[in-house]
């Protein structure tokens, strides 16, 4: 019994971990999925508590982390930052340094979600996680900030390997913008582009003019593709990217103007997006693909991002990917927080 070499590590973006380290998570997640309640795993976090800070709502992340902690013999505690007297830009209160140092004396890890309407400029959520990581002596796990969503990215890759085979090289993923009424942060699509390119996939990103993602992240995706001999393309044509795709990932995301003037213009973003009705993943566009799988991190804005026919069709793997959140998070927690491996 002991610790893995990943013990104590923060996970804020998959790009910051070596590929071999990501492989370790995926290998353990696969074993944990196969043998879910084996006594090998059910005491790994016995008597340990994982804190979960949710600034924003969640179905999958909260529930899968709670189940993960339970299945490892520990406990996940749900915390709403608004109940904690934390210092903000506008109010006096406890500093991140003090909160992080105190919480490190209690728990085995801290998960944080902060994005969309809980920030006033792009990057602010990610900065908060990194500030916690600076002061905490226990792992900080990104449960979705405004830039990255590593647990989702790992669950995506696990699902793609299950359905397309272990080697994803030469497989093409289309990540396409879709219209919708949720004005979503860029975290899931940026993480998917980063991790799919690490695993050798050809990556095409399609969006209407005016919906650019973070140029620094796109530069990293391009570099990952170059290193793996894979293709990276951006198109503003709603159909072009579907051609030859083995995987289609459709998702709404906000424009780079969403936080203009230090405020989140949610309603304007939604009104602008809803006009672009041709940007929906439907059966007719899916016919252009190589019988592609459909993935989406969920929650899905059905009828906008994708039709029911595709989302609930036989090539959709949305529920497998959602289930994999549990298994990859169990593996992340075991490898970064358990002293009983
Ligand atoms: N995919 C995802 O993070 O889902 P939730 O927002 O429901 O947690």
How do you describe this structure in short?
This protein is an alpha/beta fold and 341 residues long. The protein is built from eleven helices and nine strands. Helix 1 (19-34) packs across helix 11 (318-337) and helix 5 (150-164) packs across helix 11 (318-337).
Description:
It is a single chain. This protein is α/β, with parallel strands linked by helices and 341 residues long. The protein has 2 domains: 14-148 and 325-337, Rossmann fold; 150-321, Rossmann fold (3-Layer(aba) Sandwich), CATH 3.40.50. It contains 11 helices and 9 strands. The protein has helices at residues 19-34, 60-71, 96-104, 124-135, 150-164, 187-198, 215-227, 266-274, 283-286, 308-311, 318-337, and strands spanning 49-54, 75-79, 109-114, 140-145, 172-177, 202-206, 232-235, 247-251, 293-295. It has a 5-stranded parallel β-sheet. Helix 3 (96-104) crosses helix 4 (124-135), helix 5 crosses helix 6 (187-198) and helix 6 runs parallel beside helix 7 (215-227). The longest helix has 20 residues, at 318-337. It is globular, with a radius of gyration of 20 Å. The chain binds phosphoric acid mono(formamide)ester. Phosphoric acid mono(formamide)ester binds next to helix 2.
> Could you tell me the number of beta strands?
9
Q: Any idea what the CATH architecture of the largest domain is? A: 3-Layer(aba) Sandwich
How many distinct helices?
A: 11
Percent of residues in helical segments? 25-40%
Output the CATH topology of the largest domain: Rossmann fold
Distance between the termini: 5 Å
Average pLDDT works out at: 97
Catalogue the unreliable spans: none
| Whole-angstrom Rg | 20 Å
Largest sheet properties: 5 strands, parallel
Q: Give the overall shape, derived from the CA principal axes.
A: globular
CATH superfamily of the largest domain: Aspartate/ornithine carbamoyltransferase
Would you tell me the structural class of the helices and strands?
alpha/beta
Strands of the largest sheet, in order across it? 7-6-5-8-9
How many domains make up the 3D coordinates?
2
| Beta-strand residue fraction | 5-15%
What compounds are bound to the protein?
phosphoric acid mono(formamide)ester
| CATH class type of the largest domain | Alpha Beta
Order of helices and strands: HEHEHEHEHEHEHEEHHEHH
């Amino acid at each position: 019994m002991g610790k893995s070499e990943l013990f104590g590590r923060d996970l804020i973006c998959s790009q910051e971990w070596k590929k071999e380290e990501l492989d370790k998570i995926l290998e353990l997640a696969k074993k944990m999925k196969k043998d879910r309640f084996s006594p090998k795993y059910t005491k790994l976090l016995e008597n340990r508590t994982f804190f979960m800070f949710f600034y924003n709502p969640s179905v999958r992340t909260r529930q899968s982390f709670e189940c993960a902690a339970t299945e490892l013999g520990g406990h996940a505690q749900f915390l709403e930052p608004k109940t904690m007297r934390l210092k903000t830009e506008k109010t006096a209160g406890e500093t991140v340094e003090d909160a992080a140092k105190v919480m490190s004396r209690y728990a085995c890890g801290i998960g944080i979600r902060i994005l969309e309407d809980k920030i006033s400029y792009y990057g602010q959520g990610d900065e908060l996680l990194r500030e916690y990581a600076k002061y905490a002596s226990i792992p900080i796990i990104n449960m979705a900030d405004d830039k990255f969503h590593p647990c989702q990215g790992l669950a995506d890759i696990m699902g793609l390997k299950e359905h397309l085979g272990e080697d994803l090289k030469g497989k093409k993923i289309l990540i396409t913008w879709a219209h919708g009424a949720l004005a979503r942060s860029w975290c899931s699509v940026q993480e998917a582009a980063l991790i799919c390119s690490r695993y050798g996939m050809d990556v095409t990103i399609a969006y209407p003019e005016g919906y650019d993602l973070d140029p620094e992240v796109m530069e990293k995706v391009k570099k990952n593709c170059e290193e793996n001999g894979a293709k990276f393309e951006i198109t503003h044509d709603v159909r072009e990217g579907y051609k030859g795709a083995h995987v289609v990932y459709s998702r709404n995301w906000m424009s780079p103007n969403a936080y203009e003037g230090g405020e989140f213009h949610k309603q304007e973003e939604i009104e602008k997006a809803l006009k672009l009705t041709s940007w929906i993943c439907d059966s007719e566009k899916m016919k252009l693909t190589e019988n592609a799988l459909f993935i989406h991190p969920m929650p899905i804005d059905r009828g906008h991002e994708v039709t029911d026919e595709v989302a609930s069709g036989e090539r959709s793997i949305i529920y497998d990917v959602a289930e994999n959140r549990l298994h990859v998070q169990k593996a992340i927690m075991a490898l970064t927080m358990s002293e009983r491996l």
